[in-house]
Amino acid sequence: MKQAIVHIALVVEDYDAAIDFYTKQLDFILIEDTY
Questions:
Q1: pTM of this prediction?
Q2: Mapped to the 3 state alphabet, what secondary structure does 12-35 carry?
């Protein structure tokens, strides 16, 4: 059975820096930005 992380929510100090880090360094995909 294939397993995957589907949703993730994080509380961060610097929102823009966190988005840059997770999308550029860890290659995560930002699906929705409601901030």
A1: 0.64
A2: CCCHHHHHHHHHHHCCCCCCCCCC
Q: Tokens at residue 18, please?
A: 């966190």
d(CA 33, CA 35): 6
Residue with tokens 């997770």: 22
Q: Specify the residue for token string 């929705």.
A: 32
φ, ψ of residue 17 in degrees (nearest 5): -65, -40
Q: Are 30 and 19 in contact (CB under 8 A)?
A: yes
Q: Tell me the pLDDT of the chain (35 aa) as tens digits.
A: 899 888 878 899 999 999 999 999 999 998 888 86
